[in-house]
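Technical note accompanying the year-one report. For the benefit of new consortium partners, we illustrate the data format agreed upon in the data management plan: each record pairs a sequence with a structure-token string. No post-processing was applied to the example shown here.
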Amino acid sequence: MGPAFLLNENSSLRIVKSKISSVKSEINQFKKALLIAQDKTLDLKQKMIDFLSKEEIKIYDAHVEILKDPELEGKTIDFIKSNSCNADYAVHEVTAEYTEILNEIGDPYISARADDIVMLSRMLILILQKKVENKITLNTPSIIVADSITTNQLSSIDTNLVLGIITSHGGPTDHVAILSKALGIPSLVGLAKSILKIKAGSLLIIDCAKAQLILNPSLFYIKKYDLLMLKEKYESSIQLKKSQNYVTTKSGTSIEINANIGSLNDAKKAKSFGADGIGLFRTELCFLDSEKFPDENMHYSIYESILKEFPKVKHTIRLLDFGSDKPLSYLNNIKEENPALGSRALRLGFKHYDNLLKPQIRALLRLSNLFNIHILCPMIASEEDWIKIKETIILEFNQLNNEGVRIDYLPRIGIMVEIPNVAFRPEFYIKNADFFSFGTNDLAQFLMAADRTNESVSNYLSESKESILILIKNFTELAHKEGKEVGVCGELASDDKCLSYFLDININSLSMPPSLIPKIKNEIRNTICLFPHLISSF
């Protein structure tokens, strides 16, 4: 229940056929727009990865596949050549042909895919015209009323201010409908066009259970739905209250349930959903929209503003993992055939040490005086990698103290176990690192030689689970003998089918999207382990 916010279409988007001076130049502009659109989509995927399930996040993978479709690209290029026209007009005409064919089939699911093409066509046209999508900026909690809304717009919304969404376009298999549900936003899609006549500020009630919209409700309905909302809030508060406590199984096994974060909003959600700490701070997500390299003070101020939201817990902060599917706009990225296997994370950080790695390390060391910081090192592949980054952190620690910036103690430095060479040969790393966190997403793709962003090989990733669980078990047994903590922060961490296994092998912590924490904690309370142990805090 709330006031209506009317979303107007981007009226500045006009597509007019025009003659061009160079067909070659126009084709190059189109190809460049395709790459920019792919990068934008992958950026959105990274922003949403902590809020969506494995299946839901595939929405963005599907959009990338459309943008990479050779037939779509080829037809658009042919249209530009045969008509000697502007690329934005060609995109509009070619995609319109596609959507017309799909809509004629008459299947709701297929029609939803046609909507995806329309949305991506709009993105490409905006890029080619050097314009930006209308952002949805809410000043007060409101219900959005629109003919349609794109996944791009939805991904950028402040969900704290969105009370609901109603559209005259779309259906239950629409990606916007799926995303809004995953984000916990009540929505009704595919309503009558008459909703577009609703006046801004009009009081609305969305009843998703009954698929009902109530416009300007009477006092009776207002009181009725006020009571229903109070009931829901009460039940939710009970669940959240329980999640604030550390959990122990029926058989006495305890475990830290931490949150994956990448922003201030994530940290607030982690706190509200009862996270025991921060198990994975994806720092690179703070700088995806930056126009220049973040300096030391920028790193410091951003992290401080986030960490003080949750000041007394353990913060496991991963060093920048740029590259691969998270390129930097202000870095001249060399195109690589297999970017996930190329210059990313520390490899990229050391190549641009003064601009990337050094300012971040110095900022984290300074912040360690204020917060319980654990530094997590990604993409460690060899003993040399580990020695180099550990010595670098110690060097900057000593340098800061020599400069008069006193750092009381060196933070714990750990390894993100995501490359098979480390998992299969753990002895050196266990003796020399302070803690470990299994990044099961990357580990799966490296084990199975299957790109985790490529939907066509996703079946291989699911087959990696058993092997990864065995690796984690063997590694954990050795690490515990040396008194070292082991956690899991990839997708398997929130897989309820793996939960009792992790408890049985005494995993110290699991880190997951904040919204999943209450559910996982509740399952732990009802779990009996085969080998009850109370996991101590190292």
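Partners are asked to follow this layout when depositing records. The CA atoms of residues 324 and 337 lie 10 Å apart.
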